Amino acid sequence: MIRGRNEKITIIYAVAILFRTKYARVAVYKYLRYAIINHRTLTARVNVPGSAPVDPDSKPGSNPDRGAGVKRGEDEAPGGAEKLLRNFETECLTWSALRHPGVVQFLGVYLEEGSCLPVLVMEMMDTSLRKFLEDHRKEDFPLNLKAFVLHQITQALAYLHSKSLVHHDLSPNNVLLNRGTFVTKLTDFGMSHAVNQSTSIKGTTAFMSPEALQSPPQCNEKLDVFSFGNVILSTITHMWPEPCPPTHYKGDQLFGLDEFQRREQYVEVFTAQEKQLFLSTVRQCLENLPHKRPCSVTLVEELRHIESTLSSDDHVATPAEQVYQQLLAKNEECRQKAKVIKDKDEALREKNEALRKKDEALRKKK
Questions:
Q1: Helix, strand, coil % (nearest 5) of the chain?
Q2: SS3 of 41, please?
Q3: Cα angle at 212 between 119 and 247, to 5 degrees?
Q4: What pLDDT, on the 0 to 100 scale, is given for residue 81?
Q5: From residue 344, how far is each of 115, 227, 334, 348, 354 by CA, in Å?
Q6: pLDDT tens for each residue of 4-63
Q7: What are the residue ranges spanned by the domains of the chain?
Q8: Are the beta carbons of 122 and 185 closer than 8 angstroms?
């Protein structure tokens, strides 16, 4: 009975998410409740290679980005199925309402043949920022391109915050990009909430702000700003910015460290140019007190200034210009190959003409 309803439920759920009809939402809620209770696992699979969501407690050395991304929630606690249903519906409804170049476009939901589990369908991207950083050396990822990527992240954050939404789990795992153009987008809105409406916060531990670790946690857009400071550290250094303990001993005295000091070892590997451009922004983002951190609109302006500084000082082509230059180079390569082929054809024609004349001369002699 369930398999026979796949197509119907797929259509109903797409309508529920995109148009929010009450009937569709109630119908699919009942269906998903049946599926979750019976399978005890809700799976949402993303068709973006290199975008697998990571367990917040996963070790920095683990490699989360292989193949299609998969998110699973185990229904073990009492009321787990109901919670999974609410979370899944919230993510779909939140994501489907977002329209911005810096946000991966949510396309809908479908049920695979032979499965009762819903699958998220979204815009295709090449890889995650984390995987790209792991696969490339610093010298292979120029600073102007890093500024271009970071600038796009701030624009997406400013858009979310203008909608009174907080991402809650900003990290290189949830930043996707396309190779070549370096177009960058945010993904994974399973933890997104309206400002000041979250009673519990989960995320990637190394990127979480101190107020997110309080009980109860505080939730506003400055949480994402703190995470962005860590994204800068990770993008510049190609490292996972795991903070050191909040206290340390000097001799027999115990000293407390602020959030910037806990990550200062990553700033120490910055080049002089990287410190000049990014150190001030990182320091502001990693302030312990949320009200001392800049807003996302300010970050957009700061990153725009950094990007323009790199472009004017180093005369480095923008990603679009680089693609255009690559196309011109490829076109020139093809033109040269065509010329070589044409020259060879001309040489063959001349050779054939010489042989023809030689044959005519031999026939006349006979």
A1: 55, 10, 35
A2: strand
A3: 130
A4: 60
A5: 59, 60, 15, 6, 15
A6: 444 444 444 444 444 444 444 444 444 454 444 444 333 333 333 334 333 434 444 444
A7: 3-122, 138-314, 324-366
A8: no
- Give the pLDDT mean for 105-132: 83
Q: What is the pTM of this model?
A: 0.66
Beta-strand pair 175-177/184-186: antiparallel
pLDDT given at position 212: 84
| Rounded-to-integer distance, Cα 170 and Cα 141, Å | 21
Sheet holding 127-128, edge to edge: 127-128, 175-177, 184-186
What tokens were used for 37? 């209770």
Percent pLDDT > 90 in the chain is 40
Specify the pLDDT at position 250: 77
Inform me whether the pLDDT recorded for 276 exceeds 60.
yes
CATH number belonging to domain 138-314: 1.10.510.10
Please name the amino acid found at residue 92: C
